Amino acid sequence: MGPAAWASAPAAAALVAFDLMAAAGMGRLFQGSGWVIPVLGSAAAAHAVSWAGRRARLSLWMAGPLAGVAVLLVLIWSVLGASTWYGLPSLHTFGRLGHDLAGARAAFSVLSAPVPALPGFLLVAGAGAGVIGVLADWAAFRLQTLLEAVVPGLAILVFVSVLADKPPGPAWSGIFVALLAAYVAVHEASRKSMGGAWFSGGDGRRPVVSRAGAALVVSVAVGSALIGPRLPGAGSAGLVSFRHRVGSAASERTTISPLVDIRSRLVNQSDTELFTVRSNTAAYWRLTSLDHFDGNIWSSNESYSPASGSLPGSLPATGGKSVAQTYGIENLGSIWLPAAYIPTRISGGTGASWDPLSQSLISRSATSDGETYSVVSETPSFSPAELRSARNDPAADSRYTALPAGVPADVIALARRVTAGAASPFDAALDLQNYLRDNYHYSLDVQAGHSDSAIQTFLFQTRTGYCEQFAGAYAVMARAVGLPTRVAVGFTPGQMENGVWHVLGADAHAWPEVLLGRYGWVPFEPTPGRGNPSATSYTGVAPAQAQPAGGGTEAVPGTVPSPAAAAPPPARHRLNLRESSGPPPGPSRSGHPGPVLITSLVILALTLLWVVGVPAVRRYRRLARRREAADDSDRILVAWREANGWLDLAGYPRRPEETLAEHAGRAGAGAGLDPSAATALAQLADQASAAAYGGPEADTGGAATAQRRAAEVERAVVGSTGRLRVLGRELDPRRLSRV
């Protein structure tokens, strides 16, 4: 296998290039470039270890697991590196791996591509790329098949095409087809080193693709890139749409938690202007609120109805002021329409929908980019004395105090200790806010997420996080002491220039809202370095936000901080929380099977058809040939043909210049047959020669004897070749004609 592995190196390189290009197609499913190293690194590692295993003469049962270990290490180092112990996987690493995979499973049926590069998604995509690499190498160089080796790469293409929002560009398509054609040419050249119409190298040197073959590769690539997109119907809609569309009528949409990509906005899009707001008042530009926590993610699932003009829904009497805003959305990439809290009227734009429970607006399209609209909001104004008088109805608020089973007991105990001296729900909410602001630190150098385990890590280990951890920890702790709480997501005011607020990715933010009786949902600010301009009067937190460069904080321009409402309570305990990039909420309500279900069913049906159908057809044709044999001579020749099929699998097909006896002698000596099987093969060759050419039979055995000898040859080849290669033969549809 060593020299053979070197001889197959050109074909292996061509297959690696093809599979890497197929894996690169997954980039259409992700936002940003965080997928590149996990996905392409896994594919490359799988191919490298598979090739090394063949060169070292390792069986697939050894090389396959080694390739799996290599892929796992690549994924751990590139996705979960912070959880390792000096690069070595730890128990914490595998705990996070399991949690992130569970998150990806829940998110997969809900999120629409392109999605944030969450750890769970990267682990699944990288593992898939690794499996594709192992299967492709096995099919190409262990089973010595051609087309089956590219099926895994083509499967990636189909999978991505079903889920991706946009088709691949002409350049990608051209390169993909060129690499496919190049692999076919190089692989066949490796197998046919003795010349041919396509191939050179008949002098015994290592085969290379001929000029004609190379010209065909180039012409196919150029044709697919330049001609394909211009064919009639190339730009038309598909016959089947896998994506849910929301029309202008009232509809129910599942809102995906915007917390899943808040860190990517803060880091990757920090200097990108997302939208502008023309307003004479600074405010938090709120997207939506999330009221359901399943232990992994905060989410919302409400009914949205078309909205224009006044927005229906009861508003508490707050004594605040009306604020007019005009928005120009540029690169937000979200279905939500930002608005200062609480929106009461909307005009302009291409159509919006409104949910009075979450008090949020969404666009008609899949993204609000390009929208221009105006909103009038009522910004609440509270005093501490008013809020201390508020009381909630426990029965009516149970939805907003619910926590999943399994919330860590130490998190609940901490919440109770922090609020032990609170005289009212407002005081308890304020105690939690000040405790987090006074005892924890803001930093983006932490893992994304706000699950149970992430909160526990943040509160008791790292004591460092950003708004996602602070808001998520606050909400869980508040619910643990009976405060109806939800998480709001949006943006801090941004930078004022000539009467317009310019909002960047670095301004993305999350904060908690607590329901306080007749005053409704009241925002709090537990994140250090951030301050809501509308909440200073009762939180005692001056307006503040991130500096334009993304570091430190600055006062919000155009606002005057109010005096602190109350001195923050002394720090009582030091605890910490942490997160894991959690999945979005449960099943979508699109009303039809999602693309994942449809694709899975189609793949399952095709797999069953292949695995069951090909062996069934093989057996049927074998029995049919035996039934069609008119006499003993025909039956003996059928037995010889069946034995020849197994010799071909062992790598000893009959050469054109060989007699049957010569073929039997060469194959019996070289195919690893035991002496009994080699003798049976030689005797079967004598029978077949007599049956075919009418010569004297060296053995007087009849057709039944020939069948027994063929069966003995089959058992010997299977024993020496291995079950896995035999399985490949049974599943190879091209071999049906040889049965």
Essential attributes:
elongated; five-stranded antiparallel beta sheet; alpha+beta; 739 residues; seven-stranded antiparallel beta sheet; 26 strands; 22 helices; single chain; 45% helix; C8orf32 fold; 14% strand; disordered N terminus; 3 domains
Describe the protein in words:
The protein has 22 helices and 26 strands. The chain is of the alpha+beta class. It folds into three domains: 167 residues, no CATH class; 340 residues, Roll (C8orf32 fold); 144 residues, no CATH class. The strands form seven sheets. Strands 9-13-16-10-4-21-20 form a seven-stranded antiparallel β-sheet, with no helix packed on it. A five-stranded antiparallel β-sheet has the order 3-8-14-15-11, with no helix packed on it. A five-stranded antiparallel β-sheet has the order 12-5-19-22-23. A hairpin with a 5-residue loop joins β22 and β23. α2 packs antiparallel against α6, α18 runs parallel beside α21 and α20 packs across α21. It is elongated and about 115 Å long.
Mean pLDDT reading: 74
Low-pLDDT ranges: 1-6, 193-213, 227-255, 559-595
The level 1 CATH classification of the largest domain is Alpha Beta
Please tally the helical runs, counting DSSP H or I stretches of 4 or more residues: 22
| C-alpha-based Rg, rounded | 34 Å
Give the fraction of residues assigned to helices. 40-55%
N-C termini distance:
28 Å
CATH architecture of the largest domain: Roll
Question: Which term fits the overall shape?
Answer: elongated
Question: Number of folding domains?
Answer: 3
Per DSSP E runs of 2 or more residues, the count of β-strands stands at: 26
Widest sheet: strand ordering: 9-13-16-10-4-21-20
Main beta sheet, described? 7 strands, antiparallel
Tell me the structural class.
Answer: alpha+beta
